[in-house]
Design a protein that fits this description.
Length: 70
């Protein structure tokens, strides 16, 4: 299984890069939880504007938009 890089872009322009071999699990947590701990970082998901995913072998980023929470 190859590792994937997820860059979380926050409101205000800051970003956090996470390397993971469980992309679907990380994305699921970002969509469903208010606070997520990723590699020693506490992430408040309401401050995320969008995230990008880079999968090795594809050679380009795939931008994903977080759906608004209802």
């Amino acid at each position: 299984m190859s590792e994937t890089s997820i860059t979380i872009h926050f409101v205000g322009g800051e970003a956090l890069n996470i390397i993971s071999d469980d992309v679907s699990g990380v994305i699921s947590r970002l969509k469903s939880e208010e606070w997520v701990e990723l590699n020693e970082h506490q992430v408040q998901t309401s401050n995320i504007s969008f995230f990008t995913v880079y999968e090795s072998g594809f050679g380009k980023n795939s931008e994903k938009q977080l759906p608004s929470k209802s």
